[in-house]
Amino acid sequence: MKRKNNTLYAILGILNGGPHSGYDIRKRFGGSLQYFWSESYGQIYPVLKQLVEDGFAELMETEDPRGKKVYRITAQGRDLFQQWIKEPVNPIQYRDELLLKLSLADRKDDFSMILLLRKEAIELKAMVEELRRQKEGLQRPFQREEFPTWLLTLDYGIASAEARLQWCEQAITNLEGRSDGNGEKERVY
Prior knowledge:
By secondary structure, the protein is mainly alpha-helical.
């Protein structure tokens, strides 16, 4: 099956929520979307240009003295976005550098792996706190109705981060308590 250009659809989805500049779109990818999707400026601007050329988006007239380009979705773009929303998703292409390092490390690397796991745990705790803050912000009745599917992605993010955090803590415990082969436990600090 041919892979879809999900960058195109991600940008259409953002434009579907209202007009945005390329900079604003990048901020969305660097904000709440960063927990499950990312796009760089180098990906965003060529796709915006292509969306305009193909009639899926258009440049808006602005009074901005800096010449800021603001894009909006067209009816044709909305139709394409709605078609994409209904299509089956591509299989997840999972790439996790921490798991790769753990799978290739040996006993002499335990200390380094524990440090990586501890750093990951700290970052995960911060992520869970941030996602919970975002969820609390969407709990007001008017926002809950406006963003019901966004609440689902926040719930997934929280559950996923909490599960990985629990795994990190267990992995640290396991590595710290490894036997040295003589029945003696090694403590790695």
